[in-house]
Amino acid sequence: MNTLLEPGMLVRHPGQPDWGTGQVQSNVKGRITVNFEHAGKVLIDGSRVQLQLLPDLPK
């Protein structure tokens, strides 16, 4: 699933629900940078953490 993540997609970290919703900034070779509401920018190792994809917010 992480391989399908692209910039702009909304995700949650399953082990850190208090971080809130995150927006994918980049996904390069399994290293995913996500900007979370309450944690700021975090670099995620996609081989260790399976991010949860959220539906897009209505515009």
UniProtKB/TrEMBL annotation:
<dbReference type="InterPro" id="IPR021938">
    <property type="entry name" value="DUF3553"/>
</dbReference>
<keyword id="KW-0614">Plasmid</keyword>
<protein>
    <recommendedName>
        <fullName>DUF3553 domain-containing protein</fullName>
    </recommendedName>
</protein>
<dbReference type="Pfam" id="PF12073">
    <property type="entry name" value="DUF3553"/>
</dbReference>
<feature type="region of interest" description="Disordered">
    <location>
        <begin position="1"/>
        <end position="23"/>
    </location>
</feature>
